[in-house]
Design brief:
The chain is 41% helix and 14% strand. The chain has 15 helices and 12 strands. The strands form 3 sheets. The protein has a 6-stranded parallel sheet, with helices on both faces. Helix 6 links the parallel strand 3 and strand 4. Helix 5 runs parallel beside helix 6 and helix 9 packs across helix 14.
């Protein structure tokens, strides 16, 4: 999901007079047509250290040391704490630090041969900002530091206090030369508290109409609720949904055999336990990672699309990237958990409903289910406000920022 923002910006920049050159670590698969890409070598630091000490570089240490990973994994055992600390030290500031030298060398080769008018670094990984900072100092190129999620202010990341202190100093030093900071979330005030003198803008993620062709997709025959993406060890917690569905089935308000909840992109053991806890075997299916094109099709054929929010105050300022993708799918959305900006955007676009508690969720589910039974489908009612989140519109905003820098 994180790759979509830089990819779509690169795709649409030429419409606004900007020719993108994308610097990336070497990846499997075919590069996108029409975009100039420079691929570099890359060293996986964590895998290298695992191999050096006799571990399988392709498996997690928790699995190899037979440490049980559960919902809301909290690093409670001394082994877990030790693994976490060592990993934070080795992979500082993130797992992609092994890309740094290769990226600097490849970018420098380009910059001595060609004139580059501006530079965007986008994170995660934050190593991208370290690279951009080095290039800025050496070549004096106007630089935008783009944050799909915040750096040390990211509430999803829980590092040891000493590591976090050192990393915050690194963030301040690294971004001191950036001309503009851009956040994909309405978190300008949060970012401004740390970077007081910086120009900071919010330019959200979006969706690409080309990913959602006008060809009609047949909707599912069941009352299907679909979630695509990770669950982050239960921070995206479906238990409220499971409980609401179980109660509606027991109250005979919805039929078990007509109801289906599908997860794509996650396959965590604790989720299987939750399904059993709420007696939803045969209703909930858990699927692993599938190709992006297939995931988009699953969204378009679903009666309902699901967004799960972490029960955390800081979550209220975060737009999950999938909400914009769901706009493209044009299927009704149910968002469960903390409100804030997600509640606001659903109300403004009329693209779905927000449920902050189980009572509200049961009412929304029953209302949609009744419409499904009566008409054979749940109607999408999103309005024209979703269109401002198309990636051509998002790229236009970004181009205006670039134009001001050169």
């Amino acid at each position: 999901m994180g790759a979509q923002r830089p990819y779509k910006l690169a795709k649409y920049f030429p419409l606004f007079g900007w020719e993108p050159v994308v610097l990336v670590a070497k990846l499997p698969g075919k590069s996108p047509d029409g975009i100039r890409i420079i691929e570099t070598d890359y060293r996986d630091i964590v895998s290298s250290v695992k191999s050096k000490f006799g571990f399988n570089s392709h498996k997690g240490l928790h699995e190899q040391l037979k440490i049980q990973e559960s919902k809301n994994f909290d690093y409670s055992t001394w082994k877990s704490k030790m693994i976490k600390f060592v990993r934070e030290v080795i992979a500082f500031p993130d797992n992609f630090i092994g890309w740094y030298n290769y990226a600097i060398d490849s970018a420098s080769d380009l910059l001595v041969r060609e004139k580059v008018d501006a530079m965007i670094s986008t994170s995660y990984p934050v190593t991208a900002h370290l690279i951009a900072s080095k290039l800025k100092k050496k070549y004096r190129i106007p630089w935008i530091a783009d944050f799909r999620d915040l750096w040390t202010q990211n509430h999803y990341v829980n590092k040891y206090k000493l590591i976090k202190y050192i990393e915050r100093r690194l963030e301040l030093k690294t971004l001191s030369d950036a001309d503009v900071l851009v956040t994909a979330h309405p978190l300008v005030n949060v970012l401004q508290r740390l970077h007081k003198s910086k120009k900071i803008l919010c330019i959200t993620n979006g969706y690409d109409v080309d990913d959602f062709p006008e060809i009609q997709v047949k909707l599912t025959d069941k009352f299907t609720i679909t979630y695509t993406g990770k669950l982050y060890n239960g921070k995206r917690d479906p238990s409220m949904l499971f409980k609401a569905v179980e109660e509606l089935i027991n109250e005979k308000k919805i039929k078990k055999e007509l109801t289906e909840i599908r997860f794509f992109g996650c396959n965590e053991k604790w989720l299987i336990d939750e399904i059993k806890k709420y007696n939803l075997e045969g209703v909930v299916t858990v699927n692993g990672i599938i190709p992006r094109e297939e995931a988009l099709k699953k969204q378009r054929e679903s009666q309902i699309l699901l967004i799960l929010r972490w029960d955390n105050k800081n979550e209220e300022g975060i737009f999950p990237g999938k909400v914009f993708e769901y706009f493209g799918a044009k299927r009704p959305i149910i968002a469960v958990g903390s409100g804030g900006v997600i509640k606001d955007i659903l109300e403004k676009t009329n693209a779905g409903k927000f449920a902050e508690n189980e009572f509200a969720l049961k009412n929304i589910l029953f209302e949609y289910y009744r419409e499904f039974i009566e008409t054979g489908k749940v109607k999408y009612r999103g309005n024209i406000n979703t269109e401002k989140y198309k990636y051509d519109s998002i790229t236009r905003k970004y181009s205006e920022v670039l134009n001001e820098l050169v």
